[in-house]
Amino acid sequence: MQGLQKSLSKIEDTIRKLERSVSEAEQGRHQRQQPTSPPIQINNIQQEKQSYPPPPVRPPPQLPRIQPPPQLPRIQPP
User: Fold this and answer.
1) Cα atoms found within 13 Å of the Cα of residue 48, Cβ hemisphere only
2) What is the DSSP string of 34-67?
3) How far from 6 is each of 3, 12, 14, 15, 61, CA to CA, in Å?
4) CB-based contact 40:47 (threshold 8 Å)
5) What separation, in Å, do the N-terminal and C-terminal C-alpha atoms of the chain show?
6) What residues does 59 pair with on adjacent strands?
7) Partner residues linked to 40 by β-bridges
8) What CA–CA distance (Å, rounded) separates 32 from 29?
9) Nearest to 37 by CA among 52, 53, 51, 48
């Protein structure tokens, strides 16, 4: 019976910790949300701030493989 009580209290503690973690995470999420940036005005033309995707990354160029010169047969002197 006492072991069961210990298990129940451990479960309750874990639930409280989880609730606290969820509450802190939700508060952090609300703080991280930034207000939308104000539109930019240039020459009385209203434009929204745009972010562009990064340029594609090209793989490095492949260099041709260098092969050793062919082995010529050795000529024995007479």
Assistant:
1) 4
2) PPPPPPEEETTEEE----PPPPPPPPPPPPPPPP
3) 5, 10, 12, 14, 65
4) yes
5) 105
6) none
7) 47
8) 5
9) 48
pLDDT in tens, 39-64: 666 666 555 666 777 777 887 777 77
pLDDT at 34 over 70: no
Mean pLDDT across 26-40: 65
Match 């010529």 to its residue by tokens: 72
Q: In terms of C-beta density within 10 A (0-12 exposed, 13-18 middle, 19 or more buried), how is residue 69 classed?
A: exposed
State whether residue 9 is helix, strand or coil: helix
Spatial distance between the Cα atoms of 48 and 39, rounded to a whole number of angstroms: 5
The residue extents of the domains of the chain are 1-32
